[in-house]
Amino acid sequence: MPPNGRTEMDLRTVVGHAGTLGVAALVAVVALGALFGQPLLVSFVESGSMQPELAPGDGFVVIPETFAGPIGRGDVVVYRAEQLHGGGLVTHRVVGVTDRGFITKGDANAFTDQRSDEPPVKRAQVVGVALQRGDRVVAIPDLGTAVGTVSDAVGVIQVRLARALGTSALLGTRGFAYLLFGAS
Predict the structure, then answer these.
(1) Residue 156: in which H helix or E strand, if any?
(2) What is the pLDDT of residues 72-102, one digit of tens each?
């Protein structure tokens, strides 16, 4: 046995736990971003509009708008829509740049977002830019699916604890913060 008392198996176990913890932390960061409507380092797509580049449930690395530099044709941006999805976040590719803003389109869509009543996207609406190598987005397969599973599990835990304790304070985003605080 080595002088420090650790065996090879112990080291593998530690590395395995660290890897699991890292994945859990990544999923937690994405879940927090989804809860607050702001991608935090990574995000994921929910629809097939960016296929084949990004399938529903695929995650991707997001560079915050303030660090993204110039945005141009071919960049995939995450922006806060005015009309699409009730003003939610949209992840689409910039297919044109005008004086009024960016023209965007999902890779699988036949028409631009602006043909669907969305005005040109202004720089102020851009939340982040997807990290790309060449013209390919750096994708994390099924990350969104994992986030959805964790989010559903947290929701079930919140509801059960709220019922058991007779309080609605543990529900929603604020309740999630209380649970995180209590767990720490």
Answers:
(1) helix 143-165
(2) 999 999 999 998 878 889 999 999 999 999 9
Do 66 and 55 form a contact (C-beta atoms < 8 A)? no
* ∠ CA 25-151-53, rounded to 5°: 75
What's the pLDDT score for residue 123? Answer: 94
Radius of gyration over alpha carbons of the chain, in Å? Answer: 20
DSSP string across 45-80: --SSTTTTTS-TT-EEEEEEHHHH----TT-EEEEE
Closest CA to 89 of 77, 100, 102, 80: 80
pLDDT of residue 68: 80
